[in-house]
Design brief:
Number of domains: 1
Strand content: under 5%
Distance between the termini: 44 Å
Number of strands: 2
Structural class: mainly alpha
Oligomer: single chain
Length: about 150
């Protein structure tokens, strides 16, 4: 019985392994996931051009690709992935399209700051990759401590 069950499993190479939609290792699955995020953002650019600039910035900052990108950044080793730069360039061209302003490198850095620090709040994924991945790793490793602390709470 056990041998039949084990034989029904599908063998997956490490480069193709994913868990809950997040690739576990660098490889073709991670490349394809980032390519899909870049494609989603590029498709959103055409739609964002048709609405008010302020509304487009709010939608860009809060909706388009944010959950999927954060999921990838937290769960996959994407720190030095080449697609981060592609995503950033698409994001920069999106800001250029929405604001109708050609941003210099310094202006792009300023625009990618949080709103409370004078930016537009549209964060560059390359600057978020390492903190997001480390945060998810620390959260998992301290889960037992969190449970102990929160066990007394109702």
């Amino acid at each position: 019985m056990t041998d039949q069950m084990l034989q029904s499993f599908i063998r997956v190479d490490t480069g193709d392994a994913s868990l809950s939609g997040a690739p576990l290792f660098t490889g073709t699955v991670l490349d394809n996931a980032w390519l899909a995020c870049c494609d989603d953002l590029a498709r959103a650019v055409d739609r964002l051009r048709k609405i008010n600039a302020q509304d487009a910035l709010i939608l860009l900052r809060s909706s388009f690709c944010a959950p999927k990108v954060l999921h990838l950044l937290c769960c996959s080793p994407s720190v030095s992935h080449q697609s981060l730069q592609v995503f950033n360039s698409v994001l920069r061209s999106t800001i250029h399209s929405i604001t109708n302003a050609n941003l210099s490198n310094v202006q792009w850095l300023q625009a990618s700051l949080p709103v409370k620090e004078g930016g537009l709040g549209v964060r560059r994924v390359s600057s978020l990759a390492l903190p997001a991945f480390l945060t998810s790793a620390v959260t998992v490793s301290t889960l037992s401590v969190q449970e102990d602390i929160l066990s007394g709470c109702v």
